Amino acid sequence: MIVRTSFCCKKPQKHLKSLSFPNVFMGNPEEWKRAKRAPVVFLAGLLSLLTFQVSAFGQTGKRQVGEVKYVSSNAFYINLGTERGVQRGDSLRVVRRGRGIATLVVTSVARLSASCTAVSQVEPIKTGDRVEGFFRKEEVAGGQIGPGQQTKKKSLLTKSKVQPRKPRKRRQTRSANNRVRGSVSLQALSQTDGTSGNRDFYQMGVRSRLKVQQFMGLPVTLKVRWRSRSFSRDNVSSVISADEWRHNVYEFGVVSSAKNSNVEFGIGRVASNRIRGLGYIDGALFSYKVAPAWRLGVAGGTQPSLRTSGLQTAEQKLGLFLSYEKGEYGKRRFASTAAFSGRYNKGEVSREFVYLQNTFSHGSIFSAYQTIEVDLNRGWKSDAGRSSTQLSNFFLSTNFQPVKAISLNLSYDARKNVRIFETRSIPDSLFDEATRKGVRTGVVLRFPGRIRWSGTFGIRFRGGDVKNTTSFATGLSVQRILNSTATLNARLSYFNTMFTQAYRPSVSLRFSPLRGLSLSLAGGSYIYQTGNRETRNNWVEGDGTFRLNRRWFSRLGYRRFFGENQKAGRLFVEAGMTF
After folding, report:
1. What is the reported pLDDT for 288?
2. Region 14-30: what's the mean pLDDT?
3. Nearest to 222 by CA among 293, 166, 270, 284
4. Per-residue DSSP letters for 49-85?
5. Any idea which architecture 61-140 has in CATH?
6. So where are the chain's domains?
């Protein structure tokens, strides 16, 4: 905003420039009185001008506050949308206990919600974290200003009869092409073994995760995720060498997945989150929005090597899906996907199955997630006497939050290992034994003072005279202890099988003594009892993360094991940058 002010005199004095201040008014007392009042009038005018400027500035920007409502494997969903002024590409600040822990960039936005990716993180982002951002008030009030409309700011200028100056041409901004987001870091891990096994080793590595938006000026994103590591070991064998380099490229592909786009595609090493069992493939995927809520897609390629992450063509994968999605996060939402997934080994069937996945949520009060898989047996599976169709996996999980302080969950799990081409000779009894058929229930209680307690109990049913497997876990979290940055977490888990009873207690304390510095102290035990023998292995660790600024970070951690069959120390060092 530009405001012009001008001061003029009714009787300008041409010779005023050559006269000093006392000589001008010495002979005229009235002029002298007016001159004494001039600073007061000038200050009053200046105060009015500043008040107007501050008022106008308050109209151009308004801080909006929301929270993280849902965290997925590759996105963070918040309850701020276009109705609050959020636009795609906006940067948001994630705050926890009054301290900024991350920066988000909006990738897609709806009226009341938006999905974001993390540009930088000091601590992992969690559901319920505070989100802050500044947005235009005109947009907050309900969208862009259309032709013929006037904002309150413009009416003020018109009322004061001050014509605004024509807007200046903005400088040419840097091209938005090839915008790089992500992180790269150097890592070092060293272990000193105190047992007779002499399992000392040293490892150096480079890790990177990059996203290049508007790649080569096209509406696509290049995604790269890779890691290279060098191993040096003292204890070697015929299988393991003393020195080894291992390069793993987990992802390298060009994708286009804008939420509002009708077309989505990916080429290279890519993964589809809609086709279960497909995982990463070296190939391509494509989907098209056939209706506002319906999307149809296909994907196919070869399976990368699970050990070296290299290219191989022995195993092929194919997938088809049809999905439906209606509603918004934070409100009522329903999503469903029906798909076919197939794996083939040198042209022979390894596994083929169809599955149905459903997700329903009603705000934060209730949510449900369900999957079911049905195997289609043909080829060598049919020759082995198995039926043409077989219900292989079923999973159902529900969460109910009647009030903000209480959350209840219940799940039923009937998943089991499935037979593929490489495991076709393993006896059926081993697969039946691995079936994870059981139920699990849990509760989360939130108390005043940022205290949170959780407890879960599960039982896995076994047939015949075999004893059922039971498990239990409880955890206590206290945030901002005595109004400080410290957070205390304590956890105890237990399970009881037909052979073993085990306890795993642990406790950790995290605090931030300085801005940009986060420290953690932790310790725990592994206690196993098999028959009449009890084995204990204890550990303690210290970890520190320091952020020099928004880009550069470093981490140093040390863990010490001491017990009956574990005596070692591990030192971890990392330094890197985000961009």
Report:
1. 93
2. 41
3. 270
4. HHHHHHHHHHHH-EEEEEEEEEE-SS-EEES--GGGT
5. Beta Barrel (2.40)
6. 21-59, 61-140
